[in-house]
Write a structure and sequence with these properties.
InterPro entries: DUF5110 (IPR033403), Gal_mutarotase_sf_dom (IPR011013), GH (IPR017853), Glyco_hydro_31_AS (IPR030458), Glyco_hydro_31_C (IPR048395), Glyco_hydro_31_N_dom (IPR025887), Glyco_hydro_31_TIM (IPR000322), Glyco_hydro_b (IPR013780). This is DUF4968 domain-containing protein. Helices cover about 20% and strands about 30% of the residues. By secondary structure, the protein is α+β, with helices and mostly antiparallel strands. The longest helix is centred in the middle third of the chain and has 24 residues. The chain is globular.
């Protein structure tokens, strides 16, 4: 019988007084008299890492989330000691660590508190599993708002919410349901017009409480591992997001076709059915670049096999689809069927590549093929083997993309829908249980898939999409929001999910247009496609159990609306591609919630519906049935209604009339929006002009256009075209200046310039200081002019 009360004590433990510290280059370590160590590392002047251990030493420092290819550096670092605290000062912030209890506070250089501990770091010993339950609580100011945390089906502003991070297969999830498929333990705080970020890099099951339990306390904790978090200072939300995205990494450019419209269903088979779908798209002239094959293309759901009855000659079929402009994307799940005649299974068994239970036997679980074993993707040797398996699919058959599903990992007929927690993983030489590896299992599968597809698609770029992901997965893969439902509420959820993913580093994301489960009405599908074309990843996907969900499954009006909006997406491809370039170059999110766009305006802090697509297009979907208009908030500045060209002054909520074939769309005054002609698929047409829609503004505005060969890696060698435009509008003058960078020469030779909102009649046009003739009647009636692409300055003068 244990009588020692100290051993029986299972409550929270805290650091005691600091007894020593040492400073070495960019790090400062503080030691307490109860063996707690805090290591503070300054990576940048605005990026500081805080790492705690309670055992007197640190375990191996390893993270799947951090992009190790990027180096960091600071401009200024000063460490000093005063009577009650130690101070670490950079050129952006100062951090104070209290000597008595290790609680810390972070201030700006004007002594304003940005973030301070409430209880600070504390922990609870985990007697069941070993190690600690690690906890952190921060004081929250009145009016503080919280954003981010990746894929959450709730309000954009997380104030008052408690959320859980544990990758979970949540079929037909509901609003506010927790947890979901992805784990991004990163949030953004905003108070007193200052933004900061916290990235809690811990792969165990984690929780975040944003003033839910206690009004003025924000806390986060994990069921194991270290208290290891990064503090990011803005003060602008843009700075926080770009720093976080740079820390966890950015993808390479996708091929342009991956930004086109995609069609998917569980399942298209046999081959004749897939061909009918392809033919119907071309017949109806609804652009489409990719068709997806779900698990029924396989032989008994065995990965890397083909059902020869349904698809007797997949290489021929894929080639024929390619001739008509369709890329084929196939699904690959992690479950490998236990079948002694199945070569993939035999190879993995021979090399001991499967996950094992704690006592030695292989992890066994039921998925679509029946009983399966599961590769341990945290083992580098397994990832290398897995990558090699894509040779036949990609280089021989010609598949252009791979879709990873069920990789939370999902397991059927067990209470928790996933692996037992005693399953063991290599974790890149840091052996652990599934408690630690669960949240990164899907990311490591997607990582291995990405390297395989990239290897065999070369010299073209790879395309991979995953359902489950941890922070940093954006380096390897795109994603979608999982098994949603054909309801108006889910349309609302999808809008918020993709905005949140965008400011959480995972920009290349979309939802299943129309809903995966159940059947949408024609009106709901039309409204969803009107939103979905403004998401970076654009795909209709349905379970097939509840009826057809191709555009032609609805009436002619819905077909026309689908065509109209998919056409608009294809016209906007150069704008979307430019958004992606800015995302990978600078970490700028492709979708910007209004609070990101203008955090100074308190009216944006609780807006959910409106977002800025790229830098200059404002989108507000219709989210209710029978709506021919809605109220929406237009952010500060001047905007043009896309449909009517009517100019609107922002900074207020307005009523916007719409039709069934429209949603509220506005373009920022001064913007130059590049457009291609409508194509049925990327690369179908050779065209000789780039359309530039120029929206007049009195004052200055910058716009950019990025282009390259649309696939391949020449862009990394400088073979790209980056156009920087500046418009300067005056009372009777519009000046357009153009600067070009890069060695890529586009195929077109001229710009078709559409002038919107010009407040004067044109008297004279000069190109590079040379007056040119123009058709005054055409310009006045149709408001466009044709200009050679080589110009550097265009002056339009009014009467």
């Amino acid at each position: 019988m244990i009588t020692n009360t100290e051993l029986e004590y299972k409550g929270d433990l805290y650091p005691t007084k600091i007894v020593a510290f040492e400073h070495e280059v960019d790090s400062v370590c503080f030691h307490t008299d109860n063996s707690v160590i805090l290591k503070v590392t300054v990576l940048r002047d605005s990026l500081i890492r805080f790492r705690f251990t309670t055992k007197g030493y640190f375990s191996n420092d390893f993270s799947y989330a951090i992009d190790k290819s990027h180096s960091h550096g600071y401009n200024f670092l000063e460490v000093s000691e005063v009577e009650d605290y130690y101070q670490i000062k950079t050129s952006k912030v100062q951090c104070r660590i209290q000597k008595i209890d290790m609680r810390l506070s972070i201030f700006d250089l004007d002594e304003n508190v940005i973030l301070e501990d409430e209880l600070g770091f504390h922990w609870e010993e985990s007697y069941e599993y070993g190690g600690n339950i690690v906890k952190m609580s921060k004081a929250s100011k009145d009016g503080e708002c919280f954003y981010g945390l990746g894929d959450k089906a709730t309000q954009l502003n997380l104030k008052g919410k408690r959320l859980e991070n544990f990758a979970t297969d949540q079929y037909a999830f509901q609003k506010d349901q927790e947890p979901l498929y992805k784990v991004v333990p990163f949030y953004i705080g905003l108070q007193n017009k200052q933004s900061y970020g916290i990235f809690f890099d811990n792969t165990f099951r984690t929780y975040f409480d944003f003033c839910h339990e206690r009004r003025n306390v924000t806390s986060y904790w994990a069921e194991g591992g270290e208290m290891n978090y990064y503090f990011i200072y803005g003060p602008q939300m843009q700075d926080v997001v770009t720093t976080y995205t740079d820390l966890t990494g950015k993808p390479e450019l996708p091929p342009l076709w991956a930004l086109g419209y995609h069609q998917c269903k569980w399942s298209y088979y046999p081959e004749s059915n897939l061909k009918e779908v392809a033919a119907k798209f071309r017949e109806l002239k609804i652009p489409c670049d990719a068709l997806y094959l779900d698990i029924d293309y396989m032989e008994g759901f065995r990965c890397f096999t083909w059902n020869k009855e349904y698809f007797p000659d997949p290489k021929r079929m894929v080639a024929e689809l390619a001739e008509d402009g369709f890329k084929t994307v196939v699904i690959i799940d992690p479950g490998i069927k236990i079948d002694k005649e199945y070569s993939i299974y035999k190879e993995a068994l021979k090399n001991d590549y499967f996950c094992k239970r704690a006592d030695g036997p292989y992890m066994k679980g039921k998925v679509w093929p029946g009983e399966c074993n599961f590769p341990d993707y945290t083992n580098p040797a397994v990832r290398e083997w897995w990558a090699g398996l894509f040779k036949e699919l990609v280089s021989e058959i010609g598949v252009k993309g791979v879709w990873n599903d069920m990789n939370e990992p999902a397991v059927m007929e067990v209470p928790n829908k996933t692996f037992p927690m005693d399953v063991r993983h290599d974790y890149d030489g840091n052996p652990c249980s599934h408690r630690k590896a669960h949240n990164i299992y899907g990311t490591q599968m997607a990582r291995a898939t990405y390297h395989g597809v990239k290897r065999f698609a070369y010299p073209k770029r790879p395309f991979v999409i995953t359902r489950s992901a941890y922070a940093g997965a954006q380096r390897y893969t795109s994603s979608w929001t999982g098994d949603n439902v054909a309801t108006w509420e889910h349309l609302w959820i999808a809008n918020i999910q993709v905005q949140r993913m965008s400011i959480s580093g995972m920009g290349f994301t979309g939802s299943d247009i129309g809903g995966f489960a159940e059947q949408p009405s024609g009106e709901l599908y039309a409204r969803w496609i009107q939103l979905g074309v403004f998401h970076p990843f654009c795909r209709t996907h349905s379970s097939g159990d509840h009826g057809d969900q191709e555009p032609w499954a609805f009436d002619g009006e819905v077909i026309d609306i689908t065509r109209k909006f998919v056409n608009l997406r294809y016209q906007l491809l150069p704008y979307l591609y430019t958004m992606f370039w800015q995302y990978i170059e600078e970490g700028i999110p492709m979708l910007k919630p209004l609070v990101y766009y203008d955090q100074e305006d308190i009216q944006t802090h609780y807006r959910n519906d409106e977002f800025v697509f790229g830098n200059q297009i404002l989108v507000c979907p219709i989210l209710e049935p029978n709506s021919l208009g809605r109220r929406m908030y237009v952010p500060r500045g001047q905007w043009y209604n896309y449909w009517t060209n009517e100019e609107v002054k922002g900074g207020k909520e307005i009523w916007v009339d719409t039709k069934f074939d429209q949603i509220p769309l506005f373009v920022k005054a001064g913007a130059i929006i590049p457009k291609y002609p409508v194509q049925q698929y990327v690369g179908e047409l050779e065209f000789d002009e780039l359309i530039l829609d120029i929206y007049y503004k009195e004052g200055k505005e910058k716009s950019v256009v990025y282009e390259d060969a649309q696939d391949g890696y020449d862009y990394k060698k400088g073979r790209y075209s980056f156009l920087s435009f500046q418009t300067t509008g005056k009372e009777k003058e519009l000046i357009i200046q153009l600067h070009k960078e890069g060695k890529y020469d586009t195929n077109y030779s001229k710009y078709k310039i559409n002038l919107v909102g010009l407040p004067f009649k044109v008297k004279m046009i000069e190109i590079d200081n040379v007056e040119v003739s123009f058709d005054k009647k055409t310009l006045e009636n149709e408001a466009y002019l044709i200009v050679d692409k080589g110009f550097t300055a265009l002056h339009i003068t009014g009467e």
